[in-house]
Design brief:
mainly beta, 4-stranded antiparallel β-sheet
Length: 118
């Protein structure tokens, strides 16, 4: 089992920035993939960004150039730096953990709300 704890969500004005963090604990194997998904109201949960322990990334089109994913392997932590936020970025953001960049995650965090509004 792997446990994920997210932090950093909140309310921000359009054009602003937020940084999400997620710490993983438990039975963590090497070559894992950590990332972020989001679910906007009335929509399905979609990939935002994911990153392997080796540094490979998978970033969704709508956030390219605005969001950056990074991780600290020693701390089992993944970050999502979100810049130039737009109202359409409003969603619950979920930390994810798995073993492939292109397969469904195995574990999920509880989610953190990000609201972009003036």
């Amino acid at each position: 089992q792997v446990q994920l704890v997210e932090s950093g969500g909140g309310l921000v004005q359009p054009g602003g920035s937020l940084r999400l963090s997620c710490v993983a604990s438990g039975m963590i194997l090497d070559n894992n993939v950590m990332g972020w998904y989001r679910r906007a109201p009335g929509k399905q949960r979609d990939l935002v960004a994911s990153m392997s322990a080796g540094g490979s990334t998978n970033l969704a089109g709508p956030v390219k150039g605005r969001f950056t994913i990074s991780r600290d392997n020693a701390k089992n932590t993944v970050y999502l730096q979100m810049n130039s936020l737009m109202p359409e970025d409003t969603a619950v953001y979920y930390c994810s953990f798995g073993y492939s960049l292109y397969s469904a995650p195995v574990y999920w965090g509880q989610g953190t709300q990000v609201t972009v509004s003036s």
